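Table 4 source record.
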Amino acid sequence: MQMNGSSVSEFILLGLSSSQEIQFLFFAIFLLVYVAIIVGNLLIVISVIFDNHLHSPMYILLAKLSFFDLCFSSVATPKVIADFLRMHKTISFWGCMAQMFFMHFFGGGEMSLLIAMAIDRYVAICKPLHYKNIMNYRVLIVFLLLSWAIGFIHTTSQMAFTVGLPFCGPNVVDNIFCDLPLVIKLSCTETYILELLVIADSGLLSLVCFILLLISYIIMLVTIWQYSSSASSKAVSTLSAHITVVTLFFGPVIVIYAFPFYSYSMDKFLSVFYSIITPLLNPIIYTLRNQEMKAAIKRLCSQHIGPWLTY
């Protein structure tokens, strides 16, 4: 018996497939993707920390984004990978609550961080002469602290009510991890108000942020038309990377959480995309399109890995 009066002590996760052969295939794919997420994002974080050339607001924010991606993907992915080898996929009541808490914590933090990165690019492109004065380290620290604070407020505003819900019957979650709308639907009490809170807090908030970010990027693209062709090319390359990451992050989240309590067969695959694929694509998009980051990673590897190989 749970402290909130629930008789459910665990939840059953249906996963992606009931075929054992397909689950072995998913195990191999997800394991490779997760290793790539860890290696790719760690390279970015370590490069920014140890390379003096990258000690600027843009790269510090990028390192923080990679750190959030590391944490976000590690909340559920290790268990998801292990569950592909199990016939019966279960998670404890409090394990499920912890999964949802930390996924929304790091997800909310990443959302605010993407907005901070857009502000940084806006100042760099639209007010280049005042960039160093506006984007000083005090402002940068405020952005970093706000990302933690917003992530915490975002998750506690929903989880504070979810933890207290009574679960006394169905306990099957049709996903690979505990997803807030799916778990709320299993409660044996009226959840209409909480459903509206989830739609407003996760769905509409994501939609509004996405629209504002797109508007800011359009303003920046219009502004760089006044630059020389070389400057415009570099700015467009940077902005296109940001726009791609923002679209990949917000797109699936908006679809899932703006209409979370309607049954869509694609939601499970969208959940896989934003929780596992997006953290992999972020380092690929930024590193492959950024010469300074690629140069820093090469210097890091030559300084710390090269001597071991020669030895």
